[in-house]
Amino acid sequence: MALPLAPLAVVAAKYGAVALAGYTLARQIKRGRVDQRHEDALDDLEEGFFAHRPNDRDQVNGAARFRRVIRLGVNGPGIEFDASALGRLKMRRV
Predict the structure, then answer these.
(1) Terminal-residue alpha carbon distance, the chain
(2) Cα dihedral sign for 89, 65, 40, 28?
(3) DSSP label at 52?
(4) Distance between CA 42 and CA 6 in Å, rounded?
(5) How crowded is the C-beta side of 52, counted as CA atoms within 13 Å?
(6) What does the pLDDT read at residue 1?
(7) What is the pLDDT of residues 18-59, one digit of tens each?
(8) Band of the pLDDT at 66, cuts 50, 70, 90?
(9) Contact predicate 80/69, CB 8 Å
(10) 44 by DSSP, 3-state: which?
(11) Taking a C-beta distance cutoff of 8 angstroms, is the pair 68, 84 a contact?
């Protein structure tokens, strides 16, 4: 029985293109670092969404924190989700 190579070649080309794109993207990403000051600032956030616009600056500051514990069963093992974000948007006329 003959093996149809044309459909296999199309599938191989698709997965090869995806793999090449993923490899190229992975090479472009730079290594990050952990700054303890930023970690402490994110840990100090209250839960919820906040926005603030200082009067003396042309900027808007925003913060958000989402923290939940999900358990399997009443006393089962759990996973804690803690997502925090700080942001700043500065606008000025030039």
Answers:
(1) 73
(2) negative
(3) E
(4) 53
(5) 10
(6) 65
(7) 999 999 999 999 888 889 999 999 899 999 999 988 888 888
(8) very high
(9) yes
(10) coil
(11) no
Structure pTM? 0.57
- Amino acid at residue number 12: A
Residue owning tokens 């958000």: 64
* Residue linked to tokens 């616009």: 53
For residues 62 and 86, the answer to whether their CB atoms sit within 8 Å is: yes
Cβ atoms of residues 42 and 64 within 8 Å: no
Task: Using alpha carbons, select from 40, 87, 42, 35 the residue that is nearest to residue 66.
Answer: 42
- Measured CA to CA, the distance from residue 84 to residue 69 in angstroms comes to 15
Pairwise CA distance, residues 69 & 79, whole Å:
6
The domain limits of the chain are 5-90
